[in-house]
């Protein structure tokens, strides 16, 4: 169990970077996109933003995107099964369907459940991840109540560069990736393929009703590519593609160890044309489609889902401030056995959302003001308006104080409205409003952030005792997140700690009564602490992730836990780098979803080869 003393220690160590902050020189700001839908320095985003760059992904040696995200402040992860089991992402105490996932600017979402299946995406395809915490419906519409996570795939630049990486580890784990990226004149390109597999482990505990005594492995193949061409005068066109095919075994009460297997395909295609009609006007047209498909061996269920997005966005520099104007159309469709064919078809197989959005930004002396407004018209769910007001004040070049207030919403899903087994056509959208206060310090390698947040969700959608979705009164999350990073010589210290009170109402699965309490799978406290030492070619690191007690949706208690991971690397040359990661060093038996066993002690070793 993660004790209060352990959690307090991690929280206090997170503050350590502040002690040496004033001695650090100022550096150029990192540029982010997701917080404002346009490239802005992170210190001017007026939002709680974290980025994970390609070199950080490579050094981490994580097995999946959810595993990579679990050490971030304000983010919690759950897993129903092995590394390919359904993953939940809880941002600032909101549930998985209340966070929007984007791949290269296009929404990745299963319309039936409003989840994105992050566990199916290969880390080998990712160049950068941006995480924005807090309500973002004023820019991204339905579902952006807890935040937005955007994944950027690899893009080419510079001279042609091939790359190869390979790894092997516990329980028959093997990974291989190869590709090439670069540029030729005005054309940029990138192409990569990867394969990985593992024999897995027994993903359920004996007390679970889904228990099967077996090993639940998985395998995956992926292909990613991008191509773009610059036509001069600020105009560029391009496209990117990600396709991930895989299979996984699981445990449940309705299958046998031989039949408990499914296959999946996740894909994302994004095309764009952008340019400058004038010196003050930048425009972009983006068309993309994401798909999430499944086939189950044990029963006739083969969903095919698609989300197609068309966006026209314009940034205009005004004599005073700047203006953002855009229009967006989202069309979501479902088909396949168990959805549109068979004896129990859904009552509707498509839905369209038409949206317009606008933003205004003004900087005066040390003040920065941002206003955002969006209107969404959703078939069968009505129209919703959401907005954001954010203000920042530059105390010094390094220190920023900021405050914001925002509203957000989430429309009912296809499962909520059209599922033949207990849908509810009278559901209202979930609506939230919330604010945050923050103090940030950024200088060179040093970062410190303290963010206090509060949000209230009205008309929250929950399943009653008959598995029918209902609107209930409200849910509320109040909390504080501390995040820090500092470098001293060859040492880098980083950490995050979140104290929150995620509470709300839900239906008792036994009695059917409406009860109040802590929201399912979310802890009142969670933290991480990492330390890295790199005096030269050698690199050593350690990371501790801790989470407090939680309850699952069936009201079963789950104990707190602390996990230690160790990493090592050695650069043999400018082109060749060796790495190793030992996860769950103490071989702790723990669960993030009741009855499901999380990853035991795991060793992974490999190499990265990339000519300079």
From TrEMBL:
CDD domains: ligand_gated_channel. It comes from the Bacteria. Gene3D superfamilies: TonB-dependent receptor, beta-barrel domain (2.40.170.20), TonB-dependent receptor, plug domain (2.170.130.10). Belongs to the TonB-dependent receptor family. This is Vitamin B12 transporter. Residues 42-148 form the TonB-dependent receptor plug domain. It comes from Quisquiliibacterium transsilvanicum. Keywords: Cell outer membrane, Ion transport, Membrane, Receptor, Signal, TonB box, Transmembrane, Transmembrane beta strand, Transport. Residues 1-23 form the signal peptide. Residues 182-585 form the TonB-dependent receptor-like beta-barrel domain. Transmembrane segments: none annotated. GO terms for biological process: cobalamin transport; monoatomic ion transport. SUPFAM superfamilies: Porins. Pfam families: Plug, TonB_dep_Rec_b-barrel. One of its GO terms (cellular component) is cell outer membrane. InterPro entries: Beta-barrel_TonB (IPR000531), Beta-barrel_TonB_sf (IPR036942), Plug_dom (IPR012910), Plug_dom_sf (IPR037066), TonB-dep_rcpt-like (IPR039426). It is found in: Cell outer membrane. It is a multi-pass membrane protein.
């Amino acid at each position: 169990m993660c004790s209060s003393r352990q959690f307090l220690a991690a929280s206090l160590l997170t503050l350590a970077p502040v002690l040496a902050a004033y001695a650090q020189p100022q550096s150029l700001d990192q540029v982010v996109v997701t917080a404002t839908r346009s490239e802005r320095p992170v210190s001017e985003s007026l939002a709680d933003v974290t980025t994970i760059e390609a070199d950080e992904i490579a050094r981490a040696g994580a097995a999946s995107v959810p595993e990579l995200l679990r050490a971030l402040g304000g983010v919690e992860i759950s897993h129903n099964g092995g590394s390919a089991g359904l993953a939940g992402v809880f941002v600032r105490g909101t549930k998985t369907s209340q966070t929007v996932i984007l791949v290269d600017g296009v929404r990745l979402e299963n319309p039936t459940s409003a989840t994105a299946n992050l566990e199916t995406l290969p880390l080998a395809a990712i160049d950068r991840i941006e995480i924005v915490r807090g309500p973002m419906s004023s820019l991204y519409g339905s579902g952006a109540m807890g935040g937005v996570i955007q994944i950027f795939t690899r893009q080419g630049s510079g001279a042609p560069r091939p790359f190869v990486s390979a790894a092997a580890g516990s329980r028959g784990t093997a990974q291989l990736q190869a590709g090439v990226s670069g540029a030729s004149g005005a054309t940029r390109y990138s192409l990569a393929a990867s394969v990985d597999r593992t024999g897995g482990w027994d993903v359920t505990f004996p007390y679970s009703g889904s228990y099967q005594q077996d090993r639940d492995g998985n395998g995956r193949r992926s292909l990613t590519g991008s191509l773009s061409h610059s036509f001069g005068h600020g105009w560029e066109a391009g496209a990117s593609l990600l396709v991930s095919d895989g299979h996984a075994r699981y445990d449940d009460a309705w299958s046998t160890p031989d039949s408990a297997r499914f296959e999946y395909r996740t894909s994302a295609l994004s095309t764009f044309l952008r340019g400058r009609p004038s010196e003050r006007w930048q425009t972009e047209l983006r068309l993309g489609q994401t798909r999430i498909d499944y086939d189950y061996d044990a029963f006739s269920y083969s969903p095919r889902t698609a989300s197609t997005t068309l966006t026209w966005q314009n940034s205009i520099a005004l004599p005073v401030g700047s203006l953002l104007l855009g229009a967006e159309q989202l069309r979501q469709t479902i088909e396949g056995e168990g959805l549109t064919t068979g004896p129990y078809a859904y009552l509707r197989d498509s839905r369209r959302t038409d949206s317009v959005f606008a933003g205004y930004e003004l900087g005066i002396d040390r003040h920065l003001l941002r206003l955002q407004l969006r209107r969404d018209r959703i078939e069968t769910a009505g129209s919703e308006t959401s907005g954001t007001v954010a203000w920042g004040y530059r105390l010094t070049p390094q220190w920023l104080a900021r405050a914001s207030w925002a509203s957000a919403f989430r429309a009912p899903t296809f499962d909520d409205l059209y599922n033949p087994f207990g849908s509810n056509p009278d559901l209202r959208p979930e609506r939230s409003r919330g604010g945050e206060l923050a103090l940030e310090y950024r200088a060179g390698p040093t970062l410190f952030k303290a963010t206090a947040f509060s949000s209230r969700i009205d008309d929250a959608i929950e399943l009653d005792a008959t598995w029918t979705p209902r609107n209930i009164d409200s849910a509320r999350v109040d909390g504080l997140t501390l995040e820090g990073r500092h470098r001293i010589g060859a040492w880098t210290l980083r950490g995050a700690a979140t104290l929150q009170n995620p509470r709300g109402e839900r239906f008792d699965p036994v009695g059917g009564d409406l009860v109040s309490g802590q929201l399912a799978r979310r802890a009142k406290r969670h933290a991480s602490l990492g330390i890295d030492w790199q005096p030269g070619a050698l690199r050593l690191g350690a990371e501790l992730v801790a989470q407090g007690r939680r309850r699952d949706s069936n009201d079963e208690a789950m104990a707190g836990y602390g996990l230690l991971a160790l990493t090592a690397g050695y650069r043999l040359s400018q082109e060749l780098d060796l790495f190793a990661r030992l996860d769950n060093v103490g071989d702790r038996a723990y669960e993030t979803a009741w009855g499901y066993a999380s990853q035991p002690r795991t060793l992974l070793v490999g190499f990265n080869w990339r000519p300079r």
